Amino acid sequence: MNVRRRSSAAALAAIAVIGAATAPAVAADPSPSAPASSPSTPSGLYGTTDPRYDGVWRQSLALLAQDTAGVVPSSKAVKWLTDQQCANGAFAPFRADPAAACDAKTPVDSNSTAAAVQALWAVGGHGDVVEKALGWLKSVQNEDGGWGYTPGTPSDANSTSVVIGALTATETDPGKVVKDGQSPYDALLSFALPCAKDKGAGAFAFQPDKDGKLLPNADATAAGVLGALGKGLVAEAADPSGSGARSGAACADADKPGREQAAANGAAYLADALAEDGHLVSALGGSADQPDYGNTADAVVALAAQGGADRAAEPLAWLKKNAATWASQSGPAAYAQLVLAAHATGTDPRDFGGTDLVERLNATGPAPQGTAVKDTATASDEDRKKDEDSPFGVWWFVGVCLVFGIGIGFLLSNRTKKQQP
Q1: What distance lies between CA 289 and its chain's CA centroid?
Q2: HEC per residue, 180-234
Q3: Residue 346 phi/psi, 5° resolution?
């Protein structure tokens, strides 16, 4: 595994964060939120609803969203997540007693584990936890190259995509994580519907149905687009002029599309599904169709990652206008999904249709440590010019780093060491 290297300016920024803090994060939610029935909320966990079905998932999304917004998460929140890991590296949705050993009845799953990997890699300092989790994910890979929700179940588009995200987030090439000659991309592309389909052309199915047919699924498509692009839960907008971004393209290459074309086909399907109302819908057992806020947020991320921010403008505008109430009722994972949609489109999450999503998210759990110091590698041109014009300049920073080299190395190893198999 390799240590990610940073510039001297980035090193000083990281030290400033550590000194101030003194302490060590598609796919839609794979399991429904449970009603608020827990007698008490575990210390460090975001949200107050029963965490039995989504504790690790929502915690991971919360940490990822905070990280994208420049927030240094609470050390309690991070520790809560690391404590959820089993000795074999896997994560269950929730373990009420982390001190008790996991056994055969512990319901570990790929989605919780892959989300935790992405979150802990983002916040840094937990390479051992990440390494064990990746090892477990590789050990339960199916023969077709993909993953099901739980070990031994058939692969599905959502689970395979979220694991691809964990691999790429940790700088592991999914194409080289092979089982019986099949990679995760091979498995994912097997769920892509051909363009010749009259309905659902270019979409991804969750899994083949009992008759082996592929049925279009918007949730699986949003996850599949990100997975095919090799993206995780956190994604940035594509350059619409780039070779992989075909923002205006309809479904094409019906035979055997490659990853980029499959992502473009999936994005075309999502754009069509969103065109009428600006949002996706969900139908529950005989009830009327309802707006699906979470999947719409995921679709925004997928569209922006594939075709650029402009392609996601309409559903993003709908979310800004309508999603605040949904998020306030649904809790931290919902706020996090909206923050990630804002991040993918270059939108300010602190003014999302008049709502400060970051403040609302932070309020659902332990107070964050603070705000990350701006890295000069991403500073404005004006700020960089000031640094260059300073009489102390770059070489002064280099000198500081040399003087404090040993201390910096020790601190960074605890704060920013991120490993890869």
Answers
A1: 27
A2: CCECHHHHHHCCECCCCCCCCCCCECCCECCCCCECCCHHHHHHHHHHHCCCCCC
A3: 70, 25
The bridge status of strand 280-282 relative to strand 290-292 is: antiparallel
Task: Name the phi and psi angles at 221, rounded to 5.
Answer: -70, -45
The answer to whether 337 and 298 have CB atoms below 8 angstroms apart is: yes
Angle ∠(385,389,390) on CA atoms, nearest 5: 120
**Minimal CA–CA distance to 226: which of 28, 25, 420?**
28
Cα–Cα distance measured from residue 192 to residue 335, given in angstroms and rounded to the nearest whole number = 30
Reported as a single tens digit per residue, the pLDDT across 107-152 is 999 999 999 999 999 999 999 999 999 999 999 999 999 999 999 9
**3-class secondary structure, 344:** helix
DSSP 140-181: T--TTS---SSTTSPP-HHHHHHHHHHHHHTT--GGG--BTT
Q: Which two tokens stand for residue 48?
A: 């107050």
pTM for this prediction: 0.79
Q: Which residues contact 16 (CB under 8 A, 6 or more apart)?
A: 373
Q: What are phi and psi of 292, to 5 degrees?
A: -105, 95
- Give the pair of three-digit tokens for residue 107: 């319901």
